[in-house]
User: Which sequence fits this backbone?
């Protein structure tokens, strides 16, 4: 996995970290833990192209309710 080493926003150093990302498709939400570059100066999180493509695939599955591959974690709520 290749990560860019400089933050595109502030030019700070990116550190490889595992981050939790929430993905939404339709009314479904999925949580995924991925390796990303985190800027320790401004907090920007940079994902590589493979990870971004994966997010897109998951969003499409969520949208079409193709959630058989996913594990149920809990219920999602909306606070009005
Ligand atoms: Zn930055």
Assistant:
């Amino acid at each position: 996995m290749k990560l860019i080493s400089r933050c595109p926003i502030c030019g700070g150093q990116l550190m490889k970290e595992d981050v939790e990302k929430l993905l939404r498709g339709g009314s479904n939400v999925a949580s995924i833990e991925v390796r990303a570059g985190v800027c320790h100066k401004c907090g920007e999180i940079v994902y590589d192209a493979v990870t971004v493509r994966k997010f897109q695939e998951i969003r499409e599955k969520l949208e079409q309710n193709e959630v058989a591959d996913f594990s149920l974690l809990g219920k999602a709520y909306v606070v009005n």
